[in-house]
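Researcher: Sequence recovery benchmark, item below. Answer with residues only.
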């Protein structure tokens, strides 16, 4: 007999254990490692004020056999996580699908309009569950990094180029330029128009430790033509290139190198161990540019997406 319901307060640790012991390894961690991961997750949840009651669990008799959790992100988005269903249980799939559907509708009806899932590229079990729930594959993200101690590759800077830092007075200008850089982008183009630009900016600010001095607008002849958003990740002594983009009229001039050169220089001056970023695997132009700057891949994840009003659960 299977049962689907919300987690009870006294079951949160059990649900987190099931969730965090799944991972890409299919539950190969020993109990001490899992306990450490649960403690770390609960500490983050306390700091970020995650609602850990936003779990849906599946019980087989008295045994918890599947769980899914939603974690909110600024900007009207939420990440959805799930445990790995037991492949030996032929009946569990349909209950796991129903549990994820219930969680998705719960989140979409409250405070989010875009749900995201990050999976190992070979995690076919969970991918199948989410696709049956109406999620669709967006792309594979490549996570790249560059050591902070590597020398900075210098390129000639055109005349009449200058940088302007973000502040509240030029917020609308940043918003407008970011919006224009999204047009015909090769980096997750499906995301264009799915979210309000204010939500996009809030989500960018939530990445790491926001500092307006690390948000930069590129101007040529005083005309805004590009944007560079960087954020410190103090816990890992690293910096993230959250976003960079050029407006359509100035693309193809090699100015992406100016943006990336500035990002590398900022990370070097900050003294961090590395500069990290994520790029759509389909964006061959960006990948070629990052290779020129000695970025190397260290992780790959499949992104699944559920946009409110854009997908219908099956």
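Model:
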């Amino acid at each position: 007999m299977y049962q689907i319901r919300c987690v009870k307060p006294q079951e949160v640790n059990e649900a987190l254990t099931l969730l965090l012991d799944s991972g890409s390894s299919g539950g190969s961690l020993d109990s001490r490692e899992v306990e450490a991961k649960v403690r770390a997750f609960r500490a983050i949840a306390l700091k970020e004020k995650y609602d850990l009651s936003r779990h849906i669990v599946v019980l087989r008799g008295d045994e918890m056999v599947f769980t899914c959790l939603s974690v909110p992100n600024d900007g009207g988005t939420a990440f959805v996580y799930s445990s790995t269903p037991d492949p030996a249980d032929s009946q569990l799939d349909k209950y796991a699908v129903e549990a994820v559907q219930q969680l998705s509708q719960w989140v979409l009806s409250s405070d989010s309009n875009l749900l995201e899932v990050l999976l190992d590229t070979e995690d076919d079990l969970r991918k199948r569950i989410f696709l049956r729930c109406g999620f669709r594959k967006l792309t594979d993200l490549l996570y790249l990094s560059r050591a902070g101690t590597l020398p900075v590759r210098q390129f000639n800077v055109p005349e009449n180029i200058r940088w302007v830092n973000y502040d509240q007075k030029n917020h609308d200008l940043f918003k407008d330029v970011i919006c224009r850089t999204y047009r015909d982008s090769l980096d997750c183009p499906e995301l264009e128009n799915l979210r309000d630009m204010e939500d996009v900016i809030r989500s960018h600010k939530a990445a790491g430790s926001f500092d307006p001095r690390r948000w930069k607008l590129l101007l040529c002849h005083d005309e805004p033509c590009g944007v560079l958003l960087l954020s410190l990740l103090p816990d890992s002594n690293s910096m993230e290139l959250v976003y960079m983009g050029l407006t359509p009229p100035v693309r193809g001039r090699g100015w992406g190198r100016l943006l990336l050169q500035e990002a590398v220089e900022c990370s070097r001056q900050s003294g961090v161990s590395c500069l990290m970023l994520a790029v759509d695997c389909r964006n061959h132009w960006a990948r070629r540019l990052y290779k020129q700057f000695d970025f190397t891949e260290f992780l790959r994840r499949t992104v699944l997406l559920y946009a409110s009003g854009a997908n219908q659960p099956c």
